[in-house]
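hey m, so remember when u said the C-alpha cells were messed up on ur end? i reran from scratch. heres the input so u can diff it against urs
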Amino acid sequence: MKTLAISWRYLWSRPLAAGLNVLLLSLGLASITFLMLVGFQLSKAFDRDLAGIDVVVGAKGSPMQLILSGVLHIDVPPGNIPLKAVRELEKNPLIASIIPVSLGDNFQAYRIVGTSPAYISHYDAQLAQGAVWTQPMQAVVGATVARKLGLQLGMRFVGSHGLGAGGHSHGDNPYTVVGILAPSGSVLDRLILTDTASVWKVHEDYTASPDDSAEDRAVMEEEREITMALVRYKTPMAAVSFPRYVNTSTEMQAAAPALEITRLLNMLGLGTDVLRAFAGVLLLTAGLSVFIALLSAVRERRADLALLRMLGAGPAKVAALLLCEALWLGLVASVLGLLLGQGFAAALGWFLKLDNSLLIGGLVWPLELAVVPLLALGVSLLSALLPAIGAYRVSVLELLQSR
C-alpha cells in the first residue's frame, strides 16, 4: 500500500507531464472505445432488425436503399409496387410469409408504417397498453415514439406527407392511438404502425376529387400499391431461385438483407481502418511519452532512490515503484478513455439523430470493452519496463555518487 501511495504522489509531482501523458493515452483509448461501441451497436441493430427477413421485394432501384428504407427505416424507398404483383408472389410455393410495408407519411419525423399485425409478431413485440388496430385510422405506437412525443391511449394525431417533418398535413384523416408497444429494442420502437388500409385511405382521399364516380374509385382501388414486402422463405434453397425470378420476370426487385448489409459494412471499412490507425498512432505516441517521462524520472529521482535503498528498500521495491506509477497512469487513462468514448458515441447519435433509427448513442457496456483497460495497462507497463530495469540495476553506491 505504501508503494501505491508513493507512486501516486510521484506521478503527480510533475502535473504537466503527467497530464499530457494521461491526455495522449486517453485519446487513443477513447478512439478505440468509440469504434468498438459503434461497431457493437450497429451489429446488434442489424442482427436484431434483419432477423427472419430473407429477402425484401420492392421497386427497381438500389437494393441497399431498399433494405435501409424498408427494414432499418433510415432511408427513402425507391418507389412503390403494385399490390396485385405482391399477391401473386404470395402464391409462390417457395414463400412462407409476406409482410406488407407501406410508407409515405410521418408524425413529427417518426414514420407512419402501414402493415399487418404480423409485423409486430415478427419482432415478438408485446403491447404495454391497449390493443392492435381492428380498423383503418387506428395506430399502435412504438415505445420510443410514445415516450418522446407523449402519446397516450385515445389521443388523436394527424400525419404529414413525406418521411420527414414539414410535409403537407392530412388533417381530414386523423389517427387514434389504440395501442402502445413495450420497449423491444427493435426498429418498432421508433415507428407508428397502422393498417395498410389507413395509408390507402389517407392518400386516396388526398388525391380524390368530389367529381370522382364510383367507377373512378374502383379503378383507384384496383391500382393500389404498397412500398415493399418483407419475405420469409419456406426453405433455404429458395434463396437461389426466388430473387432471380423476381429480378428477371417481374417489374420489381428482390434484395437480400444479409448481402446488402455486408456490402455496406465493407464500404464503411475504410473509414474505420483510418480511425483505428489514428488510435494506434495516439497509443504509440502516448507509449513513447510515458517511456521518456519515466526514464527522465529515474534520472531526476536518483537522490530519492538512493534514500529509499539506504532505508532498506531492495532493487525490486524501487522497480515496483516505477511500475506502479505506470499502472496508475494506465488506470486513470483507461477510465477517462472509456468515458470519452461513450461521450463520442452519444454525441454521434445525438448529432445524426441515430437514436431514432439504429439506437446508436445509448450507454452500453459490451464485454469487448474490457480490452480497453487491459490495453491501457499493457501500454503503460511496456513503456515502464526499461526504466524499471534501469532502476533495478543501479547500485546504491552509484546512486550516492550521483548526488
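this time it looks ok to me. The first helix runs from residue 2 to 11. if urs says something different then somethings off w ur setup not the seq
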